[in-house]
């Protein structure tokens, strides 16, 4: 598959230090497995990343979900595809989060 049409859906949220492990467990064991199980056409992969450093008692999480194209993102989220996908149990342990995800088209891969 050509990489020129891949789209990364990037979103960030922050927890307190005390809630970081809980958010990570919810994301890794519930949220992303449920997304993968939906078998969304064009969904390639999903990644959860956790910052090592703590700033102002906050731990940052970044998620990246790769899709074949923007149409695949819309199949996941609907026409309001920019809004954050936030299950209630994940929202409960976040201190704050971006209300919208960013969508970036991959232009080239270097290795």
Please provide the count of β strands: 5
| Overall pLDDT confidence | 94
* CATH level 3 topology: Alpha-Beta Plaits
Q: What helical percentage do the residues reach?
A: 25-40%
Keywords:
5-stranded antiparallel beta sheet; alpha+beta; 111 residues; Alpha-Beta Plaits
Note down, in words, how this protein is organized.
It contains three helices and five strands, in the order E-H-E-E-H-H-E-E. Strand 2 and strand 3 form a beta hairpin. The mean pLDDT is 94. It is α+β, with helices and mostly antiparallel strands.
List the helices and strands and how they pair.
Blueprint: E1 7-16, H1 17-37, E2 43-50, E3 58-67, H2 70-77, H3 88-93, E4 96-97, E5 102-105
Antiparallel strand pairs: 1-3, 1-4, 1-5, 2-3
Short description:
By secondary structure, the protein is α+β, with helices and mostly antiparallel strands.
